[in-house]
Write a structure and sequence with these properties.
heterodimer; A: 394 residues; mainly alpha; two-stranded antiparallel sheet; disordered N terminus; B: 71 residues; alpha+beta; 4-stranded mixed sheet; 4 strands; globular
Chain lengths: 394, 71
């Protein structure tokens, strides 16, 4: 499979990346490193593959326009573990397990597993919480913004606009010298912590599988109705998760980075990935009869445009300040990045807060404390942004 | 004598921001940038190409990469 994955980008481009022609110092290394996934063809191919797989996951059982949604899946994991008790959204999503382990395997295979941490962990945890709270006001992460667009959900246009504005505000902070500081190298055992935590999730899922008409199986909570009750078979979810994790680690696929690099540097590279993703998902939806254009009666969505915009603005800003979309944070956590792992746990705890305290939206509209949550989350992001503007090296 | 940029321990987009800002500041010449991850190496190489600079050399030293950009 590895060789097939490696050759796909070559078919698309018929050439190697400029990085392949680097004259490497022969005293240090004889062969240049070739990462074909990091070429324009590579990131496009990655977007196409993930864009086809996501709607297929919906066909195989996942909720509408939610073939892949990092925020929704982490929220469901929080529910499965009983961190919140919203009974419609409880399922220990195996895709999350696959994303981290797929990236872990890719990083190990290509000597990119580098345990590192120590870059403002508390700020990253809070940014994770804010990102999740914003995402749950919109009802989806940036991946789902794109999938909702690809499924014809017009409300996602406001989400996408909010995401772009949020990331745009983030780039202003970066231009002013915003940084959360340098990471430092950690020992191997520390880098293995996140993959081990994820393996323990897998163990829980295997030991306590869903039981017919039972809301609980051992330690895990399960939904009997609603999005949490809709899922693809375990093996399919894990295999697709592993594949996506592997491809995304190699290609550096990042939905936030796509917008950030375009705004900050006018670099189209990552944007090609999300463009390919949305076009492939749209085409797959058409083929599967899952494309239903409109604003009303869209799956797991509400029509309050301003809050769709605002929720995603907060999430976009939080992702930008933390240096990666929720998917990229999961993939980096698999590479040994402890700060990304902390962001992921911030998101899971943020989901628990969102559902315990009425921040999260539902199909009926925003939650009773959704507006307060958006304002407070925005203030937290701005505080972190302003207080971390400094010269690098200070 | 090349200008030096130390982007170790930093993640996207900071190494690229530092590299691009140095390239714009100098206009032409030689810059040596140290990074400690593969993603930054790829991103800086791409950014240098976009800015009309070339990557003259990449040394891999343990877990670090030393890139020499030239124009």
């Amino acid at each position: 499979m590895l060789s097939v994955l490696t050759i796909i980008p070559y078919w698309v481009t018929k050439k190697f990346s400029p990085t392949d022609h680097i004259k490497l110092n022969r005293r240090h290394k004889l062969e240049p490193k070739r990462n074909l996934f990091a070429t324009s063809g590579g990131i496009t191919a990655a977007g196409v593959v993930i864009g086809v797989l996501a709607p297929l996951l919906q066909k195989w059982g996942n909720p509408g326009n939610m073939g892949i949604c990092m925020a929704c899946f982490e929220r469901d994991v929080a529910g499965a573990l009983g961190l919140h008790r919203a009974d419609l959204v409880q399922y220990l999503r195996p895709e999350i397990i696959g994303f981290v382990l797929g990236s872990f395997v890719a990083a190990l295979s290509f000597r990119e597993f580098r345990p590192r941490s120590g870059s403002a962990p508390i700020a990253r945890f809070l940014l994770g919480m804010c990102a999740m709270i914003g995402a749950l006001v919109f009802l989806g992460c940036p991946w789902r913004v794109l999938l909702r667009l690809a499924g014809g959900d017009g409300n996602a246009l406001f989400g996408f606009a909010g995401l772009a504005v949020g990331v745009g505000i983030g780039t202003v902070f970066f231009r002013q010298g915003y940084t959360l500081g340098r990471t430092s190298k950690q020992n191997y055992g520390l880098g293995l912590l996140m993959p081990l935590v994820i393996l323990s999730f897998l163990a829980l899922r295997l030991i306590y599988p869903p039981l017919p008409n039972e809301p609980k199986s051992g330690l895990l909570f399960y939904s009997l109705k609603g999005p949490g009750s809709q899922y693809a078979p375990l093996a399919i979810s894990i295999v697709v998760g592993l594949l996506v994790g592997f491809i995304a680690q190699r290609s550096r696929f990042c939905t936030m980075g796509a917008l950030r690099d375009l705004i900050l540097f006018r670099h189209w590279h990552l944007f090609l990935g999300i463009l390919a993703f949305v076009v492939a998902a749209w085409a797959t939806n058409l083929a599967l009869d899952q494309f239903h254009p409109g604003f009303t009666n869209q799956p797991v969505a509400h029509t309050q445009s301003f809050w769709n915009f605002s929720g995603m603005l907060v999430a976009g800003l939080a992702f930008a300040l933390a240096g990666g979309c929720p998917g990229r944070q999961l993939f980096m956590s698999g590479e040994g990045d402890g700060d990304a792992a902390i962001f992921v746990f911030g998101m899971i705890v943020g989901a628990a807060f969102a559902h315990n305290f009425g921040f999260a939206s539902s199909a009926a509209g925003i939650g009773p404390y959704g507006i307060v949550a958006v304002v407070v989350s925005l203030l937290i992001c701005l505080y972190i942004g302003f207080t971390n503007i400094r010269r690098v090296g200070e | 004598m090349s200008e030096k940029v130390d982007a170790r321990g930093l993640s996207c987009p900071q190494p690229v921001l530092m590299a691009v800002s140095k390239m714009k500041e100098l206009g032409a010449g030689e810059i040596e940038i140290v990074v400690d991850n593969e993603v930054s190496r790829e991103n800086i190489t791409r950014a240098a190409t976009n800015q009309g600079w070339g990557v003259a050399e990449v040394k891999e030293e343990g877990e670090e990469y030393r890139l020499r950009l030239k124009r």
